[in-house]
Design a protein that fits this description.
This protein has seven helices and 17 strands. The chain is an alpha+beta fold and 286 residues long. The protein folds into two domains: 4-35 and 100-182, Alpha-Beta Plaits; 52-98 and 186-285, Probable tRNA modification gtpase trme, domain 1 (Gyrase A, domain 2). The strands form four sheets. Strands 1-12-8-11-10-9 form a six-stranded antiparallel β-sheet. The protein has a six-stranded mixed β-sheet with strand order 14-15-16-13-7-17, with helices on both faces. The protein is globular.
Length: 286
């Protein structure tokens, strides 16, 4: 069962299991929000913490961890200057599995209405206009159309609960059948950055990530290291890769083998902070 699932249906509420539904705005809503990472609460003696499936490899590589937004996050691997140098002159990979991930499913018109309403809180209300093959930056998140009826929203963990609530409200307001499912712990994630990032990918997947085929904001689902995956070009030399949570250890070893041969190394999430602003500038200008 997924961490969070909401089904909103104004016209066919009879299809919803009434004993578990909650009447809201004319529809029924089923909630499994208590399973979401942000719903974990301390009992005064123990505070639950979520862990990446690649934490063991990161620890072996010398990672320094901090608890952030309920996650144990690898924030650095030694001298910050060396990490920045790796990103700027060679290549690096970063475990970002803690990013929030929300999946939307609805008929195309309903999906567009949900995305437009939920993404209109910031200056970039164009989130409602999704184009297959391209991600849109709005409301502090990436809005990634996977099919005409399905989209994935990727956001910092600090925004997951807020965005989930906005999407649920937008789904109820849009009418028709729609689902908002939190899939944060379904997809692990790595960020590959630096001048050799594209070459690292070329060592284990056949996706065409050349600029003319995958520009900034380009979104490419396909086989990654012989497993289903998704690659988003966040900036000129920065790629976000999503893959199955259970394959985290395997994918780290694949990237480590390919990247190590090209002089790349693991870096912490703090080394990516300057790139986040650059990625937003690229996506805004595009």
């Amino acid at each position: 069962m997924t961490p969070t699932e909401r089904l909103c249906d104004r016209e066919t509420t009879g299809l919803q299991p009434r004993p578990r539904g909650i009447a809201r705005g004319g529809g029924h809503v089923m909630s499994f929000e208590f399973l979401a990472v942000d719903a974990a609460r301390s009992d005064g003696r123990f505070t639950p913490v979520a862990h990446s499936p690649m934490e063991g490899q990161a620890r072996d590589a010398g990672a320094r961890f901090e608890q952030r937004e309920g996650w144990n996050v690898a924030v650095g691997y030694g001298e910050p200057g060396l990490e920045r140098s790796a990103i700027e002159t060679a290549g690096a990979w970063t475990d970002v599995s803690h990013l929030g991930k929300l999946e939307l499913q609805a008929a195309p018109a309903v999906l567009a209405a949900i995305v437009a309403r939920a993404g209109a809180g910031d200056d970039h209300a164009a989130a409602g206009v999704l184009e297959l093959g391209l991600a849109t930056r709005a409301a502090g998140a990436w809005w990634c159309p996977l099919t005409p009826e399905r989209a994935l929203v990727i956001c910092p963990p600090s925004r997951t609960a807020t965005l989930r609530e906005r999407l649920e409200q937008a789904a109820e307001a849009a009418g028709g059948l729609a689902s908002v499912i939190e899939v944060t712990t379904l997809h692990a994630a790595l960020t590959l950055s630096g001048p050799v990032a594209r070459e690292i990918f070329a060592r284990f997947c056949a996706l065409d990530l050349r600029p003319q085929s995958t520009p900034v904001r380009g979104l490419r689902p396909g086989s990654v290291a012989r497993t289903p995956g998704l690659v988003l070009r966040e900036a000129e030399d920065r790629f976000l890769m999503l893959f199955g949570w259970a394959l985290g250890e395997y994918m780290w070893s694949v990237v480590e083998d390919a990247g190590g041969r090209l002089g790349a190394r693991p870096v912490g999430v703090d080394a990516l902070v300057p790139l986040d602003a650059a990625a937003q500038e690229h996506s805004t200008d595009a």
